[in-house]
């Protein structure tokens, strides 16, 4: 798309009534909260004209959400899909890593993310995280922002709802001076740093990729400060970010605006809607511009409808559900460690008189390594007795959605990677958690389950990797004994709180519909953004 300078404000007469544009990355961790909110918006206001803009790959899913709503509310308008041309965030990050010869795993993620966390490995992981915040080169940013601007002008919505991690979307909205709100799958803490007294976010909260516990122990505070200072320095000096910033300004006159700027130089009246409640987050001072909606999770068919055969199997006994997310691939060594941890835990439980026979449902995505044969065979050997008893299922795909499995009433423990959606789904279902954090904010959720007393960190001494002895110990802590019963009780209390307050998606929809009545002149006085 040819580069051209963008206007710094769209004319107010260019807006229509009862029209919202949802603008998000295509990655499911972010897109799912938008899909859930779309469903709730059309249920709340069937006359709303709803547009959904993202990259290639979500057309079918958006159409499915639209069809599902219209089956329940026949007079609801269909969602209008707009494709943003260009690589997705994940595709662009992979291109950046390859172009800069950054060592990668077989699944494409940086090796530094998978290296056991020590001070210097944390520095490398922080350095390799810059592409998540600015995933595109300058020329790509210009094209994508121009496409987004064209969609914004074509739709002429009353309100644009932007993914808080979508740098091109944030940049376009800030530059055009349009009325917008941010929607995030993450917690309050992500946006609350500047609001904390005594600069607590610098010394009390663990730095990115530090893996430190919360609150940061006294002897680790100097290291925590060093990591934060390094993060600021590497961000300011990063050649990739500077090139993208300069190119964008020179070509279309726009200043780069990133997720970091939502805390550093947020517009005064910008609202940020987050997928949590205060009770599900760290203790902190809550900034007034951050609106906790409660967990925003996509509605899904009950498991009895989606996969009745799986429900029958789950009903045989309490089940450990392992799902490390759609992005993360497990290498053969780590898969075998996990299998050995399961064997130790299950053998220990089987020796207890009168104990239930615990089952395992494991959604396993192995790294595709041409140098390694079929990595499933060692796992089958390790768990041969449990396989013979029909107590373990290892699958690449499950027909039922994770939330449907978790709400089946048969899940004793959810083992996941620490993603926001995985955490929220387990909270809603009242299921204790064992977290195996893999990157960035995953470490937050690993700490959070311990702070709230609803789970354990399964790899405390070797994170992000895990070992069979430590992981089996943490699994047993969640599955058996008085601590396990206390965790289950607290998890069920939080689930009851979420149920009492209602759907997070429905609350997000109510806030967005209320925003439609606000005057654009009041919300958007500032029409340009100073670079920094």
From TrEMBL:
Gene3D superfamilies for this protein: Glycogen Phosphorylase B
Signal peptide feature range: none
Any Pfam family matching the protein: EryCIII-like_C
Keyword entries, A-Z: Transferase
Domain Erythromycin biosynthesis protein CIII-like C-terminal: 391-490
One term of GO molecular function: hexosyltransferase activity
UniProt xrefs under InterPro entries: EryCIII-like_C (IPR010610), Glycosyltransferase_28 (IPR050426), UDP_glucos_trans (IPR002213)
Protein name: Glycosyltransferase sdnJ
The species this protein was found in: Hirsutella rhossiliensis
């Amino acid at each position: 798309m040819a580069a051209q300078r963008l206007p710094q404000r769209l004319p107010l007469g260019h807006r229509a009534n009862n029209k919202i544009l949802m603008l998000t990355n295509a990655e499911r961790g972010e897109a799912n909260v938008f899909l859930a909110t779309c469903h709730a918006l059309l249920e709340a206001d069937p006359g709303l004209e709803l547009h959904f803009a993202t990259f290639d790959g979500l057309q079918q899913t958006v159409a499915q959400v639209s069809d599902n709503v219209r089956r329940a509310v026949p007079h609801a308008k269909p969602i209008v899909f707009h494709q943003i041309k260009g690589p997705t965030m994940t595709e662009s990050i992979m291109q950046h890593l390859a172009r800069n010869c950054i060592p990668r795993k077989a699944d494409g993620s940086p090796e530094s993310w998978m290296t056991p966390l020590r001070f210097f490995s944390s520095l490398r992981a922080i350095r390799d995280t810059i592409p998540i915040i600015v995933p595109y080169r300058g020329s790509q940013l210009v094209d994508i922002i121009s496409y987004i601007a064209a969609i914004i002008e074509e739709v002429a919505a009353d309100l644009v709802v932007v993914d808080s991690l979508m740098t091109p979307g944030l940049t376009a909205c800030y530059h055009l001076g349009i009325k917008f709100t941010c929607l995030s799958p993450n917690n309050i803490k992500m946006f609350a740093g500047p609001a904390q007294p005594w600069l607590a976010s610098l010394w009390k909260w663990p730095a990115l990729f530090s893996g430190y516990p919360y609150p940061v122990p006294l002897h680790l505070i100097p290291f925590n400060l060093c990591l934060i200072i390094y993060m600021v320095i590497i961000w300011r000096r990063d050649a990739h970010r500077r090139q993208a910033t300069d190119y964008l300004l020179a070509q279309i006159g726009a200043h780069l605006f990133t997720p970091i700027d939502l805390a550093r130089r947020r517009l005064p009246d910008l609202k940020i809607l987050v997928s949590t409640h205060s009770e599900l987050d760290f203790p902190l001072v809550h900034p007034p511009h951050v609106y906790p909606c409660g967990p925003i999770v996509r509605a899904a068919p009950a498991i009895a409808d989606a996969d009745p055969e799986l429900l029958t199997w789950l009903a045989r006994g309490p089940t450990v559900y392992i799902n490390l997310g759609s992005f993360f691939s497990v290498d053969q060594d780590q898969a075998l460690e996990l299998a050995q941890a399961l064997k130790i835990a299950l053998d220990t439980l089987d020796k207890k008189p009168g104990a239930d026979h615990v089952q395992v449902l494991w959604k396993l995505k192995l790294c595709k390594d041409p140098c390694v044969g079929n990595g499933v065979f060692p796992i089958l050997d390790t768990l041969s007795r449990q396989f013979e008893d029909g107590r373990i299922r290892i699958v690449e795909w499950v027909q039922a959605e994770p939330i449907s499995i978790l709400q089946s009433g048969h899940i004793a423990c959810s083992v996941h990677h620490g993603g926001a959606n995985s955490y929220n789904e387990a909270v809603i279902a009242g299921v204790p958690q064992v977290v195996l954090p893999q990157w960035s904010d995953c470490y937050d959720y690993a700490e959070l389950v311990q702070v709230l007393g609803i789970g354990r960190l399964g790899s405390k001494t070797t994170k992000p990797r895990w070992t069979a002895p430590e992981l089996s110990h943490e699994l047993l802590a969640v599955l058996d004994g008085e601590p396990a019963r206390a965790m289950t009780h607290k998890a069920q209390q939080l689930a009851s709180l979420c149920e009492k307050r209602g759907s997070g998606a429905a609350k997000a929809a109510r806030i967005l519909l209320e925003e439609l009545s606000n005057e654009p002149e009041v919300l958007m006085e500032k029409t340009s953004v100073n670079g920094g």
